Write a sequence for this structure.
């Protein structure tokens, strides 16, 4: 009797799809491990509103003391660093823009995070401004994001307030490779 594991699959697209979700699984798994280790993570949800939502307890926050981090996770095959052009092309801003529209009036403390597999291009001032929470303060960055979203500049400026971008690590708040603002500075009451 032949072992079916040794049979060449007529369609191996599932393996390719699974590899695309691997980084997203790492992000969610790290948050779940934090929760199990009695860290401030209280809730992890996958594939609802965003790729990953992590709720952390945080004293002084609204709605039961939770800070909600809505994370859009992106991967790619290339090993070159992420520039703003790449971030715009991969689409995390459009997804997070929709999330912003859904949660902005709900009196939540929240952040919007683009988790990018790989690292950010330190020579790209626009992606660096976005990563450090200064996308709304950088005129060129704000103009590019506004054009990309086809939206009002004042609304995009407000949208960029609770934003962070991190690369090459599942949780920006615990890794030295990350450059986003702390969760308290990106909180929206």
């Amino acid at each position: 009797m032949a072992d079916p594991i040794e049979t060449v699959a007529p369609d191996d697209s599932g393996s390719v799809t699974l590899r695309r979700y691997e980084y997203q699984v790492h992000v969610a798994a790290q948050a779940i491990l934090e929760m199990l280790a009695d860290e401030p993570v209280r809730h992890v949800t996958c594939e609802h509103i965003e790729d990953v939502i992590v709720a952390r307890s945080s004293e002084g926050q609204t709605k039961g003391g939770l800070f909600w981090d809505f994370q859009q996770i992106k991967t790619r095959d290339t090993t070159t660093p992420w520039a703003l052009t790449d971030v715009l092309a991969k689409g995390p801003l459009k997804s997070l823009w929709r999330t912003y529209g859904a949660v902005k009036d709900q009196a939540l403390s929240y952040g919007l995070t683009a988790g990018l597999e790989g690292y950010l291009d330190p020579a790209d001032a626009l992606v660096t401004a976005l990563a450090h929470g200064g996308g709304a303060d950088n005129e060129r960055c704000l103009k590019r994001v506004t054009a990309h979203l086809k939206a009002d500049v004042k609304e995009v400026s407000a949208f960029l307030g609770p934003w962070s971008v991190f690369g090459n690590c599942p949780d920006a708040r615990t890794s030295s490779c990350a450059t986003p603002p702390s969760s308290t500075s990106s909180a929206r009451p």
Remarks:
- The beta strands are 41-48, 50-57, 66-74, 109-116, 163-167.
- The chain has a mean pLDDT of 83.
- The helical segments are 13-36, 62-65, 84-90, 92-103, 125-131, 139-149, 153-160.
- The longest strand covers residues 66-74.
